[in-house]
């Protein structure tokens, strides 16, 4: 699997991770562990579309943002290798995706705080 495929896969996982309603889940398990295990289980599907569908179903997601369509299309060209790699090396990919998702969430929160600060200071 080439570097660009790895980056696309991490991007896909980050988008899915960020859409999971973690606050609604009632479990004593670590959310990262849950995500890792479900990614590995979904990676056993026959194709990248089936993988994405199953992973979403595990978390009760009914849809994904349109931004993942080009990612899925790109990964579809080498889906067997991508899914095989993900099945055996799911933890590093998941950790990288979680870090990316959390980083994006933090950046978004900073932007919101900055906008709110600017609105208050303009009053």
What does this structure look like?
The protein is mainly alpha-helical and about 120 residues long. The protein has one domain. Helix content is about 75%, strand content about 0%. It has six helices and no strands. Helix 2 runs antiparallel to helix 3.
Brief characterization of the structure:
The chain contains 6 helices and no strands.
Query: For the CA atoms, what is the radius of gyration?
Result: 16 Å
Mean pLDDT: 91
Approximate strand percentage: under 5%
Distance between the termini: 54 Å
Q: Helix and strand layout, with pairings?
A:
Elements: H1 3-19, H2 31-42, H3 48-58, H4 68-76, H5 79-88, H6 90-122
Helix pairs in contact: 1-4, 1-6, 2-3, 2-6
Name the descriptors.
single chain; 123 residues; mainly alpha; 75% helix; globular
């Amino acid at each position: 699997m080439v570097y660009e495929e790895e980056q696309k896969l991490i991007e896909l996982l980050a988008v899915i991770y960020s859409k999971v309603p973690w606050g609604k889940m009632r479990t004593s398990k670590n959310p990262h562990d849950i995500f890792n295990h479900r990614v590995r289980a979904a990676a056993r599907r026959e194709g990248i579309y089936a993988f994405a569908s199953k992973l979403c179903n595990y978390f009760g997601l009914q849809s994904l943002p349109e931004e993942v369509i080009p990612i899925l299309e790109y990964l579809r060209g080498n889906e067997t290798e991508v899914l095989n790699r993900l099945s055996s090396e799911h933890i590093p990919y998941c950790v990288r995706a979680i870090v990316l998702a959390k980083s994006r969430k933090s950046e978004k929160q900073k932007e919101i705080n900055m906008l709110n600060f600017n609105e208050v200071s303009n009053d």
